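Posting for a labmate who doesn't have an account.
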Amino acid sequence: MRYDWTPLWRSTIGFDRLFDVLDEVHRTAEESYPPYNIERLDENRFQISVALAGFTPDEVALTVEQNVLTLEGQKAEKDEKTFVHRGMSTRSFKRQFTLADHVEVKGARFENGLLVIELQREIPEAMKPRRIAITGASAGQVKQIEGKAA
C-alpha cells in the first residue's frame, strides 16, 4: 500500500524533502530483497553488507549519483536448470541508499557471498569546527595613560 502525499503538498512550503523521505521509508519497508546490514566502524567510517548469494561481480552494478547509492542486480541465466527445491532467490533487484552529505564510497568487494561496500565521511576543512585564538590585554599588562594631576 502506497500513501498519497498530494493533499499535504498543497498546504506546505519547504517540506518537499520530508515527504520524499517518508515515501522512501515506506517503500523500503515493503522491499526486503536483498537483505543487508549497515555497520558503523568508527565515527566517520561505515560498511554496508548485502547478501548476494549466487550473484557474481559481473551481475551487479553499483553507482553513486547526487548522494544516492544504487545497487542493481541482474542474474544472467545461462542454461535452463531444473530445481527440486529453490530456496535461494536470484531475482533481479534495485536497492537505493541515501547518503548523507560528504559521505563517499571508498570501495566494494565480494566476500563470502556478501557484497561489502565501504563508506567514509570526509568533511571539508572549511566546514570543520576550528578554534579561534582570542587576543587582548591581560591583567598584568594594563597601561595607564599619563595625565596631569588636577
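Reply:
Got it, the C-alpha cells are right above this. Residues 77 and 90 are 10 Å apart (CA to CA).
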